[in-house]
Amino acid sequence: MSLIVLGTASHVGKSITVAALCRALRNRGISVAPFKSQNMSLNSFVTGDGSEIGIAQAMQASAAGLEPVAEMNPILLKPKGDQVSQIVLLGRPYKDVQIRDYYAETDLLLERAVEAFDSLQTRYGHVVVEGAGGAAEVNLYDRDIANIRLARRLQLPIVLVADIERGGVFAQVYGTLALLPEDIRPLVAGVIVNKFRGDPTLFATGVTLLENLCGVPVLGVVPYADLHLPSEDSLSIADKRRKTDRSVRIAVIRLPRIANFTDFELLEQHASVEYVAPGAPLAGYDCIILPGTKNTVEDLALLKANGATPELARAREAGVPIIGICGGYQMLGTHIQDAGIESGTAGVYEGLGFLDVVTGFTDYRKTTVQVRRQASPCGPILSRMGVVQGYEIHMGETRRRSADEAFAGDGAVSPDGLIFGTYMHGLFQNVPAVNALLGYLHERRGEPFDPITGAVSDARGVGVDAPYDDLARHFEQHVNMDVIVSFFGDPDDRSGDDAMTREE
CobQ/CobB/MinD/ParA nucleotide binding domain: which residues (predicted)? Predict the structure, then answer.
């Protein structure tokens, strides 16, 4: 047996709930794999075989003690702008489509998703399925392959997650249940009230009221927990709180199509990291990072139109390090030659001109690969990094001209080492890379720096000592796990144990 986790809305905590369940069930000896049929996110991860999936499913796989595989997120939508998204199907680029045309694909994509689910269930024994957005989007019922149509095909128990932090939890739960199709509503086996601030026992009367109103048991009230796990999508940026007690300030330019900003979440724990609008004043920052983007050409044009070029030039003159990751690296070059692959319009576009490199988008081909590279000995930052690991996800190829490599086989660096670009996502999830950058920035300020110790990160953007057991314990303290376990069949049935052991 398996289970579906749906939400009353986006950002209610479905991904974290699935991760908590995966680790809690694994700790009970139950082999389980995560699954999300359709994800829309620019935060993605590359598996060992070069497949691209949502970062949340990679994180959930880690919680389950498994290596991520494409079947865990068979359909990934990556918005490019102008109502166009790239469809990544079973880890590989499928096509770019207008959103209005995407729905013509849903019958085919649903079949692929069900096949992927069946494959995971056969291999691992049990699956925890995550829905997308809100479950009761009535205008989408005929094409909702992440919630309603999938639930109809799988016929599994459903746990509904609601977010009490923003208020309106009674309306969320009652309204969602009332709007679910009549054949889906009986599948809802319980409700989890998530993100409670304070003592959850204070909501005891609320639990009784919810159960009486809705006729569905409340399986738990989970308090808000500050855990360092990767963010699923751009909604999470609004929830970020910079550490005001840190002297080093790092600006990450918040591009409209920012991708894989999980790259900077370890930095966020040890510096004051701010996501700033294109063209915003950059004076006072100790470092500037141009992040990845799903559309380099259009985000570069917006960056320049909003006055970012003179701001970056002033930072360069002041000796402030400027770092480009993936699309940000492409922007740092002199030119971008697009055959219409990236922006839909062929042309040659002038870059920011900080690195002597040229990027070309000549065919519909994406590089997706895990990498391990030696940093260049050039300059005061890269020379301290040593060997780092990460992953590449990008269209286009970049050719160096006079610039030296930043890493063996990748990137470019200025002669003084203070400007560099790389295709490597996850660079600053490597502790040596974070220590190298923050150590230099503290030195430049004349301040001491205590290097980060005791944490080792891997390429999926989470530490191997990430707090999954803490997450599971927190969840078990507040959720009726006996009911959850009952959804997975006989507790003595541990089918899939061999598969779980092999993955570890």
Answer: 4-226
